[in-house]
Design brief:
Layout (H helix, E strand, L loop, with lengths): L1 H33 E10 L2 E10 L5 E7 L10 H12 L3 E5 L16 H16 L4 E11 L2 H11 L5 E5 L6 H16 L3 H20 L4 H11 L7 H4 L8 H9 L5 H6 L4 E6 L7 H14 L4 E6 L9 H14 L3
Parallel strand pairs: 3-4, 3-5, 5-6, 6-7, 7-8
Antiparallel strand pairs: 1-2, 2-4
Helix pairs in contact: 3-4, 5-6, 6-7, 6-9
Length: about 325
């Protein structure tokens, strides 16, 4: 009797293992059947851009997007943008996912590049997609993340090949104002009082002025040292300020500090999707939303705006991707 039970258990175990193996194989096969990915490269003048191209299979025609990264160095290892790339292709949308200029395998230097140059990298991606079999050229768009959301309206104002724009967690205020807001939000999160926050703002403004005016920033250094040795000693937001302004951040601030995205948003006459998280600690959501509604509504822009109250800056949700995919399929052809 015991032998029969053991044989029965072995049979059940065999069936379970076989079922799981078949299920895994079916899942892998389904993934392979849905899309393919390939390593590609293209150029923006002397800049060689390395990217992954995701293409749907078994679709005669499909929309496509170019991913535009946020601030700093950012490549295809970025978990946030990677999640969007993989989710969009699974929903039938081709994705060109590049390494940012000066990051990964892409040449150049983002530190010394202004937003016009970075927008031209995105446009080069759009031009590359136009040559891909199956891509519906009437539904090619760009999707910018964080600071990338400052770049995409500029790209759309330059190139008529861009047919829709998506902005995720990006402010629409001038860059200097955004840099001030971000540090102030850090101070508020740390629990500083109003007088302390004002002092932090003064230090931040001095740092920005030194970068924009290309000075040695001695007044900034003096104010920072005084704060570190005084009432703001040990505060994380103050300790985070650089003690040496001769670094890449200063060069980049000088290059892009006077940029204002809203005039370019005002020029965009194609469908726009703005996405925000209500708990974003990097940008002042209410300020950007109010400015969008005030500025773009006046000119009857074709825009949609989604606010997810429980999400932060690195916003990702499956229901958002479902909506975004439907929006691209529907709106992208308008």
């Amino acid at each position: 009797m015991e032998k029969e039970i053991n044989i029965t258990l072995l049979k059940l175990l065999f069936i379970l293992i076989t079922t799981l193996a078949c299920s895994f194989a079916a899942h892998s096969q389904t993934k392979q059947q849905l899309y393919q990915s390939s390593e590609v490269s293209y150029h923006n003048d002397e800049i060689q851009i390395a990217a992954t191209l995701y293409q749907p299979l078994h679709q005669e025609s499909f929309p496509a997007v170019v991913i535009v990264h946020g601030s700093g160095s950012s490549s295809r290892d970025n978990l946030w943008t990677s999640a969007y790339a993989e989710s969009l292709i699974k929903r039938g949308i081709a994705v060109l996912y590049p390494d940012k200029r000066g990051s990964g395998k892409t040449t150049g230097n983002w530190v010394t590049s202004d937003f016009t140059e970075l927008s031209e990298d995105a446009i080069a991606g759009v031009h590359y997609l136009k040559g891909i079999s199956g891509v519906d050229t009437s539904r090619i768009g760009v999707i910018g993340f964080s600071q990338g959301g400052h770049i995409v309206p500029l790209a759309a104002s330059i190139s008529t090949d861009i047919k829709f724009v998506v902005s995720v967690s990006a402010s629409v205020v001038p860059m200097v104002e955004q840099m001030m807001d971000e540090v102030e939000l850090m101070a508020e999160k740390e629990g500083l009082n109003r007088l302390e926050i004002e002092k932090v703002n003064e230090i931040n403004q001095l740092a920005i002025n030194a970068a924009l005016n290309d000075t040695d920033g001695q007044d900034y250094i003096d104010a920072l040292n005084k704060a570190k040795n005084g009432a703001l000693k040990g505060k994380r937001v103050v300790e985070g300020f650089p003690t040496d302004l001769n670094q890449p951040a200063k060069t980049f601030i000088k290059t892009i500090g006077n940029y204002d995205p809203m005039p370019y948003w005002m020029e965009v006459n194609i469908p726009i999707l703005f996405v925000y998280g209500g708990k974003d600690e990097n940008i002042r959501i209410s300020k950007s939303i109010n400015l969008i509604e005030k500025s773009l509504s006046q000119r009857d822009s074709n825009y949609s705006l989604l606010l997810f109250n429980k999400n932060g800056h690195a916003l990702y949700r499956e229901d958002l991707l479902d909506f975004m995919a439907r929006w691209i399929f529907d709106k992208g052809s308008n």
